[in-house]
Design brief:
The chain is an alpha+beta fold. It folds into two domains: about 180 residues, Beta-Lactamase; about 210 residues, Hypothetical protein af1432 (Orthogonal Bundle), CATH 1.10.3210.10. Helices cover about 50% and strands about 10% of the residues. Strands 1, 2, 3, 4, 5, 6 and 7 form a seven-stranded antiparallel β-sheet that branches. Strand 1 and strand 2 form a beta hairpin. It is elongated and about 80 Å long.
Length: about 425
C-alpha cells in the first residue's frame, strides 16, 4: 500500500539518504512530490502518520497527510479523505511555532505539553477520528535563502512491536538532513507548478473557464482515475508513480492551446456558428504543437492530452486522425465527406480518455459567468448515460467507485479557495 511506513535499518537509512536527491528530483508535480516526501520521511523514523503544511504568506496550509492506523480501518482500495485547513504562522500551534521560529520541535507526548509552553496541541482531530496522537517531530522545510517553504510533521514513532515511543535525538538529526534534501525538491516543484499556473493564467485571460482551480481539479481527478485503473491491472508501482506524475501536469495543461484562439471566438457570449466551432476545435492541435521537439516524457504526455481530450469513445469527437503540423486528415482515416475520422475506443490514448471524463465532470459541476453549476445528481446521470458513447465505460465505472475522493478534490480546490 502506497504511503505505508516500513522500518529501515541504520545502514538502509544512510543508503536511502544518499539516493534521495535523485529519487525526489525525478518527481515534478508538487502534490505527488509531497506524497513521496512524507512516505520516505515516515520510513526513516518508522512513524505511523504524518502531514505536510505549505507556507503561503503568513499562513500554513494543511496540504497532505498519511496515517497507517486510520488507513487500516478502511476497506481495501479505499483512501483516507481529509479536510484542508489553514493555520496562522505564530507560536500558538505546534506547526505554527516551528514555522515562526524556524527550529524543529520534538515532543514526546503532546498530551503532556507543559502549561508554560507558548504552543498547544489541538485535540479536535483525535476526538473526531478516534486516533491517539502522542509523539511528534515537526521539522521546518527551508529554501536555500532560509525562508520557510513549509512544515513536515511526523507522528507516533513506533518500535518493532508497533508500540508508540518518543522520537530520539538521532531521529531528529536524521530528519533535519532529510528535510534539507526534501526542501530543495519542494522548491523546484513549486517553481514548476508556478510556471504551469502562469501558462493557465495566460489562457484564463483569453477564456475565463480556464482557472487555476479548474485545472487543479481536473489534474487531481485524472490522477485518481488513472491510479485505480492501473491498480486493477496490477501494474508495477514504479510505473504507476511515473505516470501519475506525468498525467497530473499534462492534465492541467489540457486546454493550453486556447491561447492561440481569437478573443472573438473564446469570449463570444452565445453559441458558436459552424465556422467558429471549427476554429475553436483547433485548440487541440495548437496545444499539442507546443510540446513538439520532445525533451522529456512529459512533452509526450502533454501533447497527447491536449490533442485527444475532446475525442469520444464512439468516434464522434475531434480532431480525429490528423497530421499535427498541417491539421490535414491522415491518409486512410477520413469520413465520407473527406474530413478526419474521429478516434474511437482505445485508438484514443488512455490519458486523453481520462482527461475527457475529468474535464467534462468539472465543467458541468462548476458555475461560470454564462451558466449555473449543475447539481451533482444531474452531472452523474449525464456521465452514466454517456458511458460507451462519449466516455470509456470502464473509466466511468472507476469514476463512480471513487466518487468520495473526487468530492474531496473538489473541496480542496474550490473556486473561491
Amino acid at each position: 500500500m502506497r504511503g505505508e511506513a516500513t522500518m529501515l535499518t541504520e545502514k538502509e537509512k544512510m543508503e536511502t539518504l544518499s539516493r534521495l536527491v535523485i529519487q525526489l528530483n525525478r518527481v515534478s508535480d508538487l502534490d505527488i512530490l509531497m506524497e513521496h516526501i512524507l512516505t520516505q520521511a515516515r520510513r526513516f523514523v518508522n512513524a505511523d502518520a504524518g502531514s505536510i503544511y505549505i507556507a503561503e504568506d503568513k499562513i500554513l496550509k494543511f496540504t497532505y497527510t498519511q496515517n497507517d492506523t486510520l488507513q487500516e480501518r478502511l476497506s481495501k482500495g479505499e483512501k483516507l479523505i481529509y479536510s484542508t485547513f489553514s493555520l496562522p504562522i505564530n507560536e500558538q500551534s505546534i506547526a505554527g511555532h516551528v514555522a515562526s521560529t524556524g527550529k524543529p520541535l520534538n515532543i514526546a507526548d503532546v498530551y503532556e505539553i507543559e502549561a508554560t509552553a507558548p504552543y498547544n496541541f489541538s485535540k479536535e482531530f483525535d476526538e473526531a477520528s478516534h486516533y491517539a496522537t502522542r509523539s511528534t517531530l515537526t521539522i521546518p522545510l527551508k529554501s536555500a535563502n532560509g525562508s520557510i517553504l513549509g512544515i513536515l510533521q511526523i507522528i507516533n514513532a513506533q518500535d518493532d512491536d508497533k508500540n508508540v515511543i518518543p522520537f530520539s535525538e538521532k531521529d531528529e538529526k536524521m530528519m533535519l538532513q532529510f528535510a534539507s534534501i526534501a526542501a530543495v525538491a519542494l522548491e523546484r516543484a513549486q517553481m514548476m507548478r508556478a510556471i504551469i499556473l502562469r501558462m493557465i493564467r495566460m489562457a484564463e485571460l483569453r477564456d475565463p473557464k480556464e482557472t487555476g482551480a479548474h485545472v487543479n481539479r481536473v489534474g487531481g481527478f485524472a490522477v485518481e482515475i488513472y491510479e485505480k485503473w492501473a491498480t486493477l491491472r496490477n501494474l508495477p508501482q514504479r510505473e504507476i508513480d511515473l505516470n501519475r506524475d506525468l498525467l497530473r501536469m499534462a492534465a492541467m495543461l489540457h486546454d493550453v492551446g486556447k491561447v492561440a484562439i481569437s478573443d472573438l471566438i473564446l469570449k463570444k457570449p452565445g453559441r458558436f456558428n459552424r465556422d467558429e466551432y471549427e476554429i475553436m476545435k483547433q485548440h487541440t492541435a495548437l496545444g499539442a504543437q507546443l510540446f513538439l521537439g520532445r525533451q522529456s516524457e512529459f512533452d509526450d504526455a502533454a501533447s497527447q492530452v491536449a490533442l485527444t481530450h475532446h475525442e469520444k469513445w464512439d468516434g464522434s469527437g475531434y480532431p480525429g486522425h490528423i497530421d499535427l503540423i498541417s491539421g490535414l486528415p491522415l491518409s486512410g482515416h477520413t469520413d465520407p465527406a473527406g474530413r478526419p475520422r474521429g478516434k474511437r475506443g482505445t485508438e484514443i490514448p488512455l490519458f486523453g480518455r481520462i482527461v475527457a471524463l475529468a474535464d467534462v465532470y468539472d465543467a458541468l459541476s462548476s458555475a461560470r459567468i454564462y451558466k449555473e453549476a449543475w447539481n451533482e445528481a444531474d452531472v452523474l446521470t449525464t456521465l452514466e448515460n454517456d458511458a460507451g458513447s462519449h466516455f470509456d465505460p470502464e473509466l466511468v465505472d472507476i469514476f463512480f467507485s471513487i466518487i468520495d475522493i473526487i468530492r474531496s478534490i473538489q473541496n480542496r480546490y474550490a473556486d473561491d479557495a
